[in-house]
Known about the structure:
There is one protein chain. Helices cover 41% and strands 15% of the residues. It is an alpha/beta fold. The protein has four domains: 30-153, no CATH class; 161-261; 271-438, Rossmann fold (3-Layer(aba) Sandwich); 445-596, P-loop containing nucleotide triphosphate hydrolases (Rossmann fold, 3-Layer(aba) Sandwich), CATH 3.40.50. The chain has a seven-stranded parallel beta sheet with strand order 5-6-4-7-8-3-9, sandwiched between helices. Strand 15 (555-562) and strand 16 form a beta hairpin. Helix 4 (161-190) packs parallel to helix 6 (241-260) and helix 10 (361-370) runs parallel beside helix 11 (390-405). The protein is globular.
Amino acid sequence: LIDQKAVSSSDSTQQNTAPNHAVLSSPRLEYHEHQRRDSSQSDTSSRSHFQSLSKHPRSTKGATTTTKANCNYDVNCTRSGCHFNHPNGRLIDQKAVSLSDNTQPNTASRRAIPSLLHSENRAHHIQYSSKTSDIVDQVLTNIHTKTTKTTIHEKSQRPSGSELIEMISKLLAKANEQQTEFDSNDQECKDSDDEQVLDDLRKNVSQELRLQRNEFQSTIDTLSNDYMDIRSSAIDTEYNVVQLECIQNKIERELKRWQLRLPIYARRSDIMEKLERNQVFILKADTGSGKSTQTVQYLCDANFADEKQIICTQPRKLAARSLAARVAEEYGCQIGEEVGFHVGGGRPTTSKRTKIKFVTDTLFLNEYKNDPMLLKYSVVLVDEAHERKIDTDIVLGLMKQCLKKRKDLKLVVMSATLDMDLLYNYFANDFKCDTLEVGGRTYPIEDFYLDDDVENYIQASVTKAVEIHQSDEIGDILVFLTGQDEIDLALADLCKKLENDKSYIGLPLHGKLSEEENAQIFESMPDKRKIIFSTNVAETSVTIDGIKHVVESGMVKEKMWDEKRKMQMLKIGQITKSSVKQRRGRAGRTSAGKVRK
Protein backbone atom coordinates (compact mmCIF):
# COMPACT_ATOMS: atom_id res chain seq x y z
CA LEU A 1 0.00 0.00 0.00
CA ILE A 2 2.86 2.35 0.70
CA ASP A 3 3.81 2.19 -2.98
CA GLN A 4 0.24 2.82 -4.12
CA LYS A 5 -0.92 5.71 -1.90
CA ALA A 6 0.46 9.02 -0.87
CA VAL A 7 1.91 8.98 2.59
CA SER A 8 1.28 11.97 4.78
CA SER A 9 3.95 13.11 7.16
CA SER A 10 2.96 12.92 10.80
CA ASP A 11 1.09 15.84 12.66
CA SER A 12 2.55 18.29 10.54
CA THR A 13 3.16 21.27 8.54
CA GLN A 14 3.35 20.64 4.81
CA GLN A 15 2.10 17.40 3.29
CA ASN A 16 4.05 15.93 0.43
CA THR A 17 3.29 12.88 -1.68
CA ALA A 18 5.97 10.22 -1.33
CA PRO A 19 7.60 9.15 -4.57
CA ASN A 20 6.60 5.70 -5.82
CA HIS A 21 9.82 3.92 -4.88
CA ALA A 22 9.58 0.19 -4.20
CA VAL A 23 11.57 0.00 -0.99
CA LEU A 24 10.49 -2.77 1.32
CA SER A 25 7.16 -4.54 1.77
CA SER A 26 7.61 -5.70 5.36
CA PRO A 27 7.89 -4.31 7.99
CA ARG A 28 5.87 -1.28 6.90
CA LEU A 29 7.98 1.84 6.60
CA GLU A 30 6.72 5.38 6.96
CA TYR A 31 8.27 8.07 4.83
CA HIS A 32 9.15 11.18 6.79
CA GLU A 33 10.16 14.22 4.78
CA HIS A 34 11.56 17.29 6.42
CA GLN A 35 10.48 20.78 5.52
CA ARG A 36 12.58 22.75 3.19
CA ARG A 37 14.99 25.25 4.65
CA ASP A 38 13.91 27.91 2.24
CA SER A 39 12.50 28.05 -1.26
CA SER A 40 15.65 29.43 -2.84
CA GLN A 41 17.66 26.32 -1.94
CA SER A 42 15.07 24.04 -3.51
CA ASP A 43 15.25 25.99 -6.76
CA THR A 44 18.99 25.58 -7.05
CA SER A 45 19.07 21.90 -6.06
CA SER A 46 19.25 19.55 -9.09
CA ARG A 47 20.80 16.47 -7.55
CA SER A 48 17.94 15.30 -5.36
CA HIS A 49 14.17 15.43 -5.13
CA PHE A 50 14.08 16.94 -1.65
CA GLN A 51 16.34 19.09 0.52
CA SER A 52 16.25 18.40 4.23
CA LEU A 53 15.81 21.16 6.81
CA SER A 54 17.42 19.19 9.61
CA LYS A 55 20.80 20.34 10.81
CA HIS A 56 22.49 17.29 12.21
CA PRO A 57 25.63 17.82 14.22
CA ARG A 58 28.67 17.03 12.18
CA SER A 59 31.12 14.67 13.77
CA THR A 60 34.68 15.75 14.14
CA LYS A 61 37.70 13.59 13.64
CA GLY A 62 41.09 15.08 14.16
CA ALA A 63 39.73 18.67 14.12
CA THR A 64 38.54 18.26 10.52
CA THR A 65 35.09 19.24 9.37
CA THR A 66 33.07 17.59 6.64
CA THR A 67 31.86 20.01 4.02
CA LYS A 68 29.43 19.59 1.19
CA ALA A 69 32.18 19.55 -1.42
CA ASN A 70 34.59 17.01 0.08
CA CYS A 71 32.31 14.46 1.82
CA ASN A 72 32.23 11.91 -0.98
CA TYR A 73 34.77 9.56 0.67
CA ASP A 74 34.15 10.68 4.26
CA VAL A 75 32.86 7.93 6.53
CA ASN A 76 31.92 10.55 9.14
CA CYS A 77 29.46 12.39 6.89
CA THR A 78 26.17 13.09 8.72
CA ARG A 79 24.43 15.39 6.26
CA SER A 80 20.86 14.21 5.81
CA GLY A 81 20.64 15.74 2.35
CA CYS A 82 23.89 14.21 1.11
CA HIS A 83 23.53 12.73 -2.36
CA PHE A 84 26.83 10.82 -2.39
CA ASN A 85 26.77 7.02 -2.21
CA HIS A 86 29.52 6.53 0.37
CA PRO A 87 31.44 3.30 -0.26
CA ASN A 88 31.96 2.61 3.47
CA GLY A 89 28.67 3.95 4.74
CA ARG A 90 28.41 7.08 6.84
CA LEU A 91 27.99 8.02 10.46
CA ILE A 92 24.29 8.78 10.15
CA ASP A 93 23.74 5.18 9.11
CA GLN A 94 25.68 3.80 12.05
CA LYS A 95 24.17 5.74 14.94
CA ALA A 96 20.77 6.99 15.95
CA VAL A 97 20.14 10.45 14.61
CA SER A 98 18.71 13.13 16.86
CA LEU A 99 16.44 15.38 14.87
CA SER A 100 16.67 19.14 15.28
CA ASP A 101 14.29 21.34 17.24
CA ASN A 102 12.01 22.17 14.32
CA THR A 103 10.97 18.51 13.94
CA GLN A 104 8.45 16.68 16.04
CA PRO A 105 9.62 15.51 19.48
CA ASN A 106 8.35 11.95 19.08
CA THR A 107 10.61 11.38 16.09
CA ALA A 108 13.79 11.87 18.06
CA SER A 109 14.02 8.16 18.88
CA ARG A 110 13.52 7.07 15.30
CA ARG A 111 16.47 5.80 13.34
CA ALA A 112 17.39 6.19 9.73
CA ILE A 113 17.35 3.21 7.36
CA PRO A 114 20.91 2.08 6.50
CA SER A 115 22.65 3.45 3.45
CA LEU A 116 21.37 0.56 1.36
CA LEU A 117 18.53 2.95 0.52
CA HIS A 118 20.68 6.10 0.48
CA SER A 119 21.06 6.89 -3.22
CA GLU A 120 21.77 9.77 -5.51
CA ASN A 121 18.11 10.31 -6.31
CA ARG A 122 16.80 10.23 -2.73
CA ALA A 123 17.79 12.68 0.00
CA HIS A 124 14.73 12.19 2.14
CA HIS A 125 14.78 10.12 5.33
CA ILE A 126 13.05 6.78 5.59
CA GLN A 127 11.92 6.05 9.10
CA TYR A 128 9.94 3.38 10.81
CA SER A 129 7.80 3.41 13.91
CA SER A 130 9.00 2.14 17.25
CA LYS A 131 6.50 -0.72 16.99
CA THR A 132 8.34 -2.24 14.06
CA SER A 133 11.76 -1.39 15.42
CA ASP A 134 12.04 -4.61 17.41
CA ILE A 135 10.96 -6.67 14.40
CA VAL A 136 13.58 -5.09 12.17
CA ASP A 137 16.25 -5.53 14.84
CA GLN A 138 15.34 -9.20 15.16
CA VAL A 139 15.49 -9.71 11.38
CA LEU A 140 18.86 -7.97 11.15
CA THR A 141 20.15 -10.02 14.07
CA ASN A 142 19.03 -13.26 12.41
CA ILE A 143 20.69 -12.26 9.15
CA HIS A 144 23.90 -11.42 10.98
CA THR A 145 23.79 -14.72 12.86
CA LYS A 146 23.22 -16.72 9.67
CA THR A 147 25.98 -14.84 7.88
CA THR A 148 28.37 -15.48 10.75
CA LYS A 149 27.49 -19.18 10.83
CA THR A 150 27.88 -19.43 7.05
CA THR A 151 31.25 -17.73 7.19
CA ILE A 152 32.41 -20.02 9.98
CA HIS A 153 31.10 -23.03 8.05
CA GLU A 154 32.88 -21.98 4.88
CA LYS A 155 36.12 -21.48 6.79
CA SER A 156 35.76 -24.87 8.42
CA GLN A 157 35.27 -26.48 5.02
CA ARG A 158 38.77 -25.57 3.89
CA PRO A 159 41.37 -27.12 6.20
CA SER A 160 44.68 -25.49 6.89
CA GLY A 161 47.96 -26.55 5.34
CA SER A 162 49.04 -28.50 8.41
CA GLU A 163 45.71 -30.35 8.54
CA LEU A 164 46.03 -31.28 4.87
CA ILE A 165 49.56 -32.52 5.51
CA GLU A 166 48.25 -34.80 8.25
CA MET A 167 45.35 -36.13 6.13
CA ILE A 168 47.57 -36.82 3.11
CA SER A 169 50.08 -38.64 5.31
CA LYS A 170 47.30 -40.91 6.60
CA LEU A 171 46.04 -41.58 3.08
CA LEU A 172 49.53 -42.51 1.87
CA ALA A 173 49.98 -44.80 4.87
CA LYS A 174 46.66 -46.48 4.05
CA ALA A 175 47.76 -46.95 0.43
CA ASN A 176 51.00 -48.59 1.54
CA GLU A 177 49.09 -50.93 3.87
CA GLN A 178 46.83 -52.05 1.04
CA GLN A 179 49.82 -52.73 -1.22
CA THR A 180 51.51 -54.75 1.51
CA GLU A 181 48.33 -56.76 2.11
CA PHE A 182 48.00 -57.50 -1.59
CA ASP A 183 51.62 -58.65 -1.85
CA SER A 184 51.12 -60.95 1.13
CA ASN A 185 48.01 -62.56 -0.36
CA ASP A 186 49.70 -62.86 -3.73
CA GLN A 187 52.65 -64.69 -2.18
CA GLU A 188 50.28 -67.11 -0.43
CA CYS A 189 48.73 -67.96 -3.79
CA LYS A 190 52.16 -68.61 -5.28
CA ASP A 191 53.09 -70.93 -2.40
CA SER A 192 49.85 -72.93 -2.74
CA ASP A 193 50.24 -76.67 -3.30
CA ASP A 194 47.15 -76.89 -5.48
CA GLU A 195 48.66 -76.49 -8.93
CA GLN A 196 45.28 -76.47 -10.68
CA VAL A 197 44.00 -73.61 -8.54
CA LEU A 198 47.28 -71.75 -9.10
CA ASP A 199 47.00 -72.18 -12.88
CA ASP A 200 43.42 -70.88 -12.88
CA LEU A 201 44.41 -67.86 -10.85
CA ARG A 202 47.29 -67.10 -13.19
CA LYS A 203 45.05 -67.32 -16.21
CA ASN A 204 41.96 -65.54 -14.95
CA VAL A 205 42.83 -63.35 -11.98
CA SER A 206 46.47 -63.00 -11.05
CA GLN A 207 47.69 -61.20 -14.13
CA GLU A 208 44.91 -58.62 -14.04
CA LEU A 209 45.28 -58.02 -10.30
CA ARG A 210 49.03 -57.54 -10.60
CA LEU A 211 48.53 -55.05 -13.40
CA GLN A 212 46.11 -53.17 -11.18
CA ARG A 213 48.60 -53.28 -8.34
CA ASN A 214 51.35 -51.86 -10.56
CA GLU A 215 49.02 -49.13 -11.78
CA PHE A 216 48.07 -48.22 -8.23
CA GLN A 217 51.67 -48.18 -7.00
CA SER A 218 52.85 -46.05 -9.91
CA THR A 219 50.16 -43.43 -9.35
CA ILE A 220 50.65 -43.33 -5.57
CA ASP A 221 54.42 -42.93 -6.01
CA THR A 222 53.89 -40.00 -8.38
CA LEU A 223 51.45 -38.29 -6.01
CA SER A 224 53.76 -38.94 -3.07
CA ASN A 225 56.67 -37.27 -4.88
CA ASP A 226 54.50 -34.26 -5.73
CA TYR A 227 53.45 -34.08 -2.09
CA MET A 228 57.05 -34.11 -0.85
CA ASP A 229 58.00 -31.40 -3.36
CA ILE A 230 55.30 -29.13 -1.96
CA ARG A 231 56.44 -29.74 1.60
CA SER A 232 60.09 -29.10 0.80
CA SER A 233 59.35 -25.90 -1.14
CA ALA A 234 57.15 -24.41 1.59
CA ILE A 235 58.48 -21.29 3.32
CA ASP A 236 57.87 -21.12 7.07
CA THR A 237 55.25 -23.90 6.79
CA GLU A 238 53.12 -21.71 4.49
CA TYR A 239 51.90 -24.52 2.25
CA ASN A 240 50.05 -24.15 -1.02
CA VAL A 241 46.60 -25.21 0.18
CA VAL A 242 45.14 -25.51 -3.33
CA GLN A 243 47.86 -27.91 -4.49
CA LEU A 244 47.58 -29.96 -1.31
CA GLU A 245 43.80 -30.26 -1.72
CA CYS A 246 44.32 -31.39 -5.31
CA ILE A 247 46.75 -34.12 -4.23
CA GLN A 248 44.43 -35.22 -1.42
CA ASN A 249 41.50 -35.58 -3.84
CA LYS A 250 43.60 -37.57 -6.30
CA ILE A 251 44.79 -39.97 -3.59
CA GLU A 252 41.22 -40.49 -2.37
CA ARG A 253 40.03 -41.21 -5.91
CA GLU A 254 42.89 -43.64 -6.43
CA LEU A 255 41.98 -45.54 -3.27
CA LYS A 256 38.37 -45.83 -4.49
CA ARG A 257 39.52 -47.20 -7.84
CA TRP A 258 41.79 -49.69 -6.14
CA GLN A 259 38.89 -50.92 -4.02
CA LEU A 260 36.53 -51.21 -7.02
CA ARG A 261 39.09 -53.32 -8.93
CA LEU A 262 37.39 -52.73 -12.29
CA PRO A 263 39.10 -54.50 -15.21
CA ILE A 264 39.75 -51.27 -17.10
CA TYR A 265 41.87 -49.97 -14.20
CA ALA A 266 44.61 -52.44 -15.11
CA ARG A 267 44.79 -50.97 -18.64
CA ARG A 268 44.77 -47.27 -17.77
CA SER A 269 48.38 -46.69 -18.78
CA ASP A 270 47.78 -48.45 -22.10
CA ILE A 271 44.73 -46.27 -22.77
CA MET A 272 46.58 -43.04 -22.03
CA GLU A 273 49.61 -44.08 -24.07
CA LYS A 274 47.55 -44.99 -27.13
CA LEU A 275 45.51 -41.81 -26.91
CA GLU A 276 48.63 -39.65 -26.65
CA ARG A 277 50.10 -41.18 -29.79
CA ASN A 278 46.92 -41.29 -31.89
CA GLN A 279 44.11 -38.92 -32.78
CA VAL A 280 41.46 -41.67 -32.87
CA PHE A 281 41.24 -44.44 -30.28
CA ILE A 282 38.74 -47.33 -30.41
CA LEU A 283 38.05 -49.08 -27.10
CA LYS A 284 36.14 -52.35 -26.93
CA ALA A 285 35.41 -53.27 -23.31
CA ASP A 286 32.97 -55.86 -22.04
CA THR A 287 29.96 -55.13 -19.87
CA GLY A 288 30.97 -54.29 -16.31
CA SER A 289 34.54 -53.29 -17.19
CA GLY A 290 34.04 -49.64 -16.18
CA LYS A 291 34.64 -48.04 -19.57
CA SER A 292 31.76 -45.53 -19.34
CA THR A 293 32.57 -44.24 -15.84
CA GLN A 294 36.36 -44.57 -15.62
CA THR A 295 37.71 -43.49 -19.01
CA VAL A 296 36.51 -39.89 -18.67
CA GLN A 297 38.10 -39.68 -15.21
CA TYR A 298 41.42 -41.02 -16.50
CA LEU A 299 41.41 -38.35 -19.20
CA CYS A 300 40.65 -35.65 -16.66
CA ASP A 301 43.46 -36.78 -14.35
CA ALA A 302 45.80 -36.76 -17.37
CA ASN A 303 45.19 -32.99 -17.75
CA PHE A 304 43.04 -33.22 -20.89
CA ALA A 305 40.46 -31.00 -19.18
CA ASP A 306 42.78 -28.29 -17.88
CA GLU A 307 41.92 -25.78 -20.61
CA LYS A 308 38.97 -27.38 -22.42
CA GLN A 309 36.18 -29.80 -21.58
CA ILE A 310 35.76 -33.53 -22.14
CA ILE A 311 32.40 -34.45 -23.67
CA CYS A 312 30.88 -37.93 -23.75
CA THR A 313 27.84 -38.76 -25.91
CA GLN A 314 25.20 -41.31 -24.90
CA PRO A 315 22.31 -42.69 -26.98
CA ARG A 316 19.75 -42.15 -24.19
CA LYS A 317 18.88 -39.45 -21.65
CA LEU A 318 18.75 -41.82 -18.69
CA ALA A 319 22.24 -43.11 -19.43
CA ALA A 320 23.65 -39.57 -19.61
CA ARG A 321 22.03 -38.53 -16.32
CA SER A 322 22.92 -41.67 -14.38
CA LEU A 323 26.51 -41.72 -15.62
CA ALA A 324 26.98 -38.07 -14.69
CA ALA A 325 25.70 -38.77 -11.17
CA ARG A 326 27.94 -41.84 -10.80
CA VAL A 327 31.06 -40.10 -12.09
CA ALA A 328 30.43 -37.03 -9.92
CA GLU A 329 30.18 -39.25 -6.85
CA GLU A 330 33.41 -41.08 -7.68
CA TYR A 331 35.22 -37.88 -8.63
CA GLY A 332 34.31 -36.29 -5.31
CA CYS A 333 32.13 -33.38 -6.44
CA GLN A 334 28.52 -32.33 -6.72
CA ILE A 335 26.67 -32.88 -9.97
CA GLY A 336 26.93 -29.71 -12.04
CA GLU A 337 30.38 -28.77 -10.74
CA GLU A 338 33.34 -30.62 -12.27
CA VAL A 339 30.92 -33.17 -13.76
CA GLY A 340 27.70 -32.15 -15.50
CA PHE A 341 25.19 -33.23 -18.13
CA HIS A 342 22.75 -31.86 -20.70
CA VAL A 343 19.92 -33.98 -22.07
CA GLY A 344 17.49 -31.30 -23.24
CA GLY A 345 14.21 -30.18 -21.73
CA GLY A 346 15.88 -27.48 -19.63
CA ARG A 347 19.11 -25.69 -18.91
CA PRO A 348 22.36 -27.68 -18.87
CA THR A 349 23.39 -28.96 -15.45
CA THR A 350 26.86 -27.50 -15.78
CA SER A 351 28.95 -24.59 -14.51
CA LYS A 352 32.16 -22.72 -15.28
CA ARG A 353 34.05 -25.40 -13.32
CA THR A 354 32.70 -28.28 -15.44
CA LYS A 355 35.42 -30.50 -16.91
CA ILE A 356 33.39 -33.58 -17.89
CA LYS A 357 30.03 -33.29 -19.63
CA PHE A 358 27.62 -36.08 -20.62
CA VAL A 359 25.15 -35.36 -23.42
CA THR A 360 22.85 -37.27 -25.76
CA ASP A 361 23.79 -37.72 -29.40
CA THR A 362 21.05 -35.28 -30.42
CA LEU A 363 22.31 -32.54 -28.10
CA PHE A 364 25.83 -33.04 -29.40
CA LEU A 365 24.60 -32.52 -32.96
CA ASN A 366 22.97 -29.27 -31.86
CA GLU A 367 26.27 -28.10 -30.38
CA TYR A 368 28.04 -29.06 -33.59
CA LYS A 369 25.66 -26.83 -35.58
CA ASN A 370 26.63 -23.84 -33.44
CA ASP A 371 30.35 -24.68 -33.34
CA PRO A 372 31.53 -27.02 -36.15
CA MET A 373 35.11 -26.79 -34.85
CA LEU A 374 34.12 -27.91 -31.32
CA LEU A 375 36.52 -25.37 -29.86
CA LYS A 376 35.30 -25.92 -26.28
CA TYR A 377 36.41 -29.56 -26.21
CA SER A 378 39.71 -31.39 -26.14
CA VAL A 379 38.34 -34.95 -26.26
CA VAL A 380 35.08 -36.34 -27.66
CA LEU A 381 33.96 -39.78 -26.48
CA VAL A 382 31.23 -41.63 -28.39
CA ASP A 383 29.84 -44.36 -26.13
CA GLU A 384 27.71 -47.35 -27.13
CA ALA A 385 28.70 -46.98 -30.78
CA HIS A 386 27.56 -50.54 -31.55
CA GLU A 387 23.90 -49.46 -31.54
CA ARG A 388 24.43 -47.74 -34.89
CA LYS A 389 21.56 -45.31 -34.41
CA ILE A 390 21.20 -42.60 -37.05
CA ASP A 391 22.36 -39.85 -34.68
CA THR A 392 25.36 -41.93 -33.60
CA ASP A 393 26.42 -42.61 -37.19
CA ILE A 394 26.02 -38.91 -38.05
CA VAL A 395 28.19 -38.00 -35.06
CA LEU A 396 30.96 -40.32 -36.30
CA GLY A 397 30.72 -38.87 -39.80
CA LEU A 398 30.86 -35.27 -38.59
CA MET A 399 33.75 -36.06 -36.26
CA LYS A 400 35.72 -37.33 -39.25
CA GLN A 401 35.32 -33.90 -40.88
CA CYS A 402 36.12 -32.01 -37.68
CA LEU A 403 39.26 -34.03 -36.92
CA LYS A 404 40.74 -33.04 -40.28
CA LYS A 405 40.47 -29.36 -39.31
CA ARG A 406 41.52 -29.72 -35.67
CA LYS A 407 44.65 -31.80 -35.24
CA ASP A 408 44.63 -31.26 -31.47
CA LEU A 409 41.18 -32.82 -31.01
CA LYS A 410 40.96 -36.45 -29.84
CA LEU A 411 38.19 -38.97 -30.53
CA VAL A 412 37.45 -42.05 -28.41
CA VAL A 413 34.88 -44.58 -29.65
CA MET A 414 33.68 -47.06 -27.01
CA SER A 415 31.38 -50.06 -26.91
CA ALA A 416 31.07 -53.60 -25.59
CA THR A 417 30.09 -55.33 -28.82
CA LEU A 418 31.20 -53.08 -31.68
CA ASP A 419 32.91 -54.27 -34.84
CA MET A 420 36.42 -52.93 -34.27
CA ASP A 421 37.65 -53.74 -37.78
CA LEU A 422 34.79 -51.81 -39.37
CA LEU A 423 35.45 -48.65 -37.35
CA TYR A 424 39.22 -48.97 -37.66
CA ASN A 425 39.03 -49.11 -41.45
CA TYR A 426 36.69 -46.11 -41.43
CA PHE A 427 39.18 -43.87 -39.58
CA ALA A 428 42.61 -45.40 -40.24
CA ASN A 429 42.96 -44.07 -43.80
CA ASP A 430 42.79 -40.44 -42.66
CA PHE A 431 44.08 -40.43 -39.07
CA LYS A 432 46.47 -42.19 -36.74
CA CYS A 433 44.25 -44.78 -35.14
CA ASP A 434 44.68 -47.55 -32.57
CA THR A 435 42.50 -50.07 -30.76
CA LEU A 436 42.36 -51.83 -27.41
CA GLU A 437 40.19 -54.64 -26.09
CA VAL A 438 39.47 -55.04 -22.37
CA GLY A 439 37.73 -57.98 -20.75
CA GLY A 440 34.77 -57.58 -18.42
CA ARG A 441 34.13 -58.52 -14.85
CA THR A 442 30.80 -60.28 -14.80
CA TYR A 443 29.60 -62.79 -12.26
CA PRO A 444 28.32 -66.25 -13.27
CA ILE A 445 25.05 -66.08 -15.22
CA GLU A 446 22.65 -68.97 -15.81
CA ASP A 447 20.46 -68.99 -18.93
CA PHE A 448 16.95 -70.48 -19.04
CA TYR A 449 15.04 -70.65 -22.33
CA LEU A 450 11.26 -70.44 -22.20
CA ASP A 451 8.68 -71.85 -24.63
CA ASP A 452 8.81 -70.54 -28.18
CA ASP A 453 6.06 -68.64 -29.99
CA VAL A 454 4.55 -66.91 -26.98
CA GLU A 455 1.55 -65.00 -28.33
CA ASN A 456 1.27 -62.54 -25.46
CA TYR A 457 4.83 -61.89 -24.31
CA ILE A 458 3.65 -59.14 -21.93
CA GLN A 459 1.48 -61.50 -19.91
CA ALA A 460 4.12 -64.23 -20.10
CA SER A 461 6.76 -61.83 -18.75
CA VAL A 462 4.53 -60.83 -15.82
CA THR A 463 3.75 -64.47 -15.05
CA LYS A 464 7.45 -65.34 -14.99
CA ALA A 465 8.21 -62.35 -12.73
CA VAL A 466 5.49 -63.44 -10.28
CA GLU A 467 6.85 -66.98 -10.33
CA ILE A 468 10.34 -65.77 -9.44
CA HIS A 469 8.98 -63.48 -6.71
CA GLN A 470 6.96 -66.23 -5.05
CA SER A 471 9.93 -68.60 -5.05
CA ASP A 472 12.67 -68.61 -2.44
CA GLU A 473 15.16 -66.91 -4.75
CA ILE A 474 16.46 -63.55 -3.58
CA GLY A 475 17.30 -60.49 -5.64
CA ASP A 476 15.47 -57.85 -7.67
CA ILE A 477 13.85 -58.58 -11.04
CA LEU A 478 14.30 -56.67 -14.32
CA VAL A 479 11.80 -57.29 -17.12
CA PHE A 480 12.44 -55.92 -20.62
CA LEU A 481 9.43 -54.73 -22.65
CA THR A 482 9.10 -52.43 -25.67
CA GLY A 483 7.37 -49.23 -24.52
CA GLN A 484 5.49 -47.22 -21.92
CA ASP A 485 2.07 -48.67 -22.86
CA GLU A 486 3.28 -52.22 -22.39
CA ILE A 487 4.92 -51.29 -19.09
CA ASP A 488 1.69 -49.76 -17.77
CA LEU A 489 -0.26 -52.89 -18.75
CA ALA A 490 2.34 -55.12 -17.10
CA LEU A 491 2.28 -53.13 -13.84
CA ALA A 492 -1.51 -53.28 -13.74
CA ASP A 493 -1.44 -57.05 -14.31
CA LEU A 494 1.24 -57.44 -11.62
CA CYS A 495 -0.88 -55.55 -9.08
CA LYS A 496 -3.81 -57.87 -9.73
CA LYS A 497 -1.75 -61.03 -9.31
CA LEU A 498 0.03 -59.77 -6.18
CA GLU A 499 -2.85 -57.77 -4.74
CA ASN A 500 -2.27 -58.55 -1.06
CA ASP A 501 1.50 -58.90 -1.27
CA LYS A 502 3.34 -56.06 0.50
CA SER A 503 6.84 -57.46 0.07
CA TYR A 504 7.46 -56.03 -3.39
CA ILE A 505 7.30 -52.75 -5.29
CA GLY A 506 6.63 -52.51 -9.01
CA LEU A 507 8.53 -49.77 -10.83
CA PRO A 508 8.53 -48.49 -14.42
CA LEU A 509 11.68 -47.44 -16.25
CA HIS A 510 11.50 -45.59 -19.55
CA GLY A 511 12.68 -42.37 -21.14
CA LYS A 512 9.64 -40.25 -20.23
CA LEU A 513 10.12 -40.44 -16.46
CA SER A 514 11.33 -37.45 -14.47
CA GLU A 515 14.65 -37.42 -12.62
CA GLU A 516 12.87 -37.95 -9.28
CA GLU A 517 11.02 -41.00 -10.62
CA ASN A 518 14.21 -42.41 -12.11
CA ALA A 519 16.05 -41.93 -8.82
CA GLN A 520 13.70 -44.40 -7.11
CA ILE A 521 15.02 -47.15 -9.38
CA PHE A 522 18.52 -46.82 -7.94
CA GLU A 523 17.48 -46.53 -4.28
CA SER A 524 18.23 -49.43 -1.97
CA MET A 525 15.10 -51.14 -0.59
CA PRO A 526 16.24 -53.94 1.72
CA ASP A 527 12.72 -54.71 2.99
CA LYS A 528 11.14 -55.06 -0.46
CA ARG A 529 11.92 -56.73 -3.75
CA LYS A 530 11.98 -54.41 -6.74
CA ILE A 531 10.25 -55.68 -9.88
CA ILE A 532 11.26 -53.28 -12.65
CA PHE A 533 9.60 -53.17 -16.06
CA SER A 534 11.91 -51.35 -18.45
CA THR A 535 12.40 -50.47 -22.08
CA ASN A 536 15.82 -50.75 -23.69
CA VAL A 537 17.01 -47.68 -21.70
CA ALA A 538 18.34 -50.13 -19.08
CA GLU A 539 20.19 -52.10 -21.72
CA THR A 540 23.44 -50.09 -21.69
CA SER A 541 25.43 -47.79 -19.41
CA VAL A 542 23.07 -48.30 -16.45
CA THR A 543 23.95 -50.31 -13.36
CA ILE A 544 21.10 -51.12 -10.96
CA ASP A 545 22.46 -52.73 -7.80
CA GLY A 546 20.58 -55.79 -6.62
CA ILE A 547 19.41 -57.10 -10.01
CA LYS A 548 19.77 -60.90 -10.03
CA HIS A 549 16.98 -61.91 -12.38
CA VAL A 550 16.37 -60.73 -15.95
CA VAL A 551 13.25 -61.67 -17.90
CA GLU A 552 13.96 -61.14 -21.61
CA SER A 553 11.05 -60.69 -24.00
CA GLY A 554 13.38 -60.48 -27.00
CA MET A 555 11.43 -57.54 -28.44
CA VAL A 556 12.18 -53.84 -28.90
CA LYS A 557 10.44 -50.77 -30.31
CA GLU A 558 12.73 -48.76 -32.57
CA LYS A 559 12.67 -46.48 -35.57
CA MET A 560 12.67 -48.63 -38.68
CA TRP A 561 12.39 -47.88 -42.38
CA ASP A 562 8.92 -48.50 -43.80
CA GLU A 563 9.31 -49.38 -47.47
CA LYS A 564 5.65 -48.83 -48.30
CA ARG A 565 5.41 -45.37 -46.72
CA LYS A 566 8.98 -44.44 -47.64
CA MET A 567 9.64 -43.06 -44.15
CA GLN A 568 10.89 -44.04 -40.71
CA MET A 569 8.35 -45.33 -38.23
CA LEU A 570 8.35 -46.79 -34.72
CA LYS A 571 7.93 -50.52 -35.03
CA ILE A 572 8.18 -53.50 -32.71
CA GLY A 573 10.72 -56.07 -33.77
CA GLN A 574 13.22 -58.58 -32.49
CA ILE A 575 16.42 -57.43 -30.82
CA THR A 576 19.92 -57.94 -32.22
CA LYS A 577 22.57 -60.30 -30.91
CA SER A 578 24.48 -57.41 -29.35
CA SER A 579 21.32 -56.38 -27.46
CA VAL A 580 20.91 -59.96 -26.23
CA LYS A 581 24.43 -59.81 -24.83
CA GLN A 582 23.89 -56.41 -23.25
CA ARG A 583 20.62 -57.40 -21.58
CA ARG A 584 22.13 -60.62 -20.33
CA GLY A 585 24.92 -58.64 -18.71
CA ARG A 586 22.42 -56.76 -16.51
CA ALA A 587 21.97 -59.91 -14.40
CA GLY A 588 25.67 -60.40 -13.64
CA ARG A 589 26.70 -56.80 -13.13
CA THR A 590 27.13 -56.81 -9.34
CA SER A 591 26.42 -60.45 -8.40
CA ALA A 592 25.59 -63.85 -9.87
CA GLY A 593 22.29 -63.91 -11.74
CA LYS A 594 19.81 -65.75 -13.91
CA VAL A 595 18.29 -64.87 -17.28
CA ARG A 596 14.97 -66.15 -18.61
CA LYS A 597 14.66 -65.79 -22.38
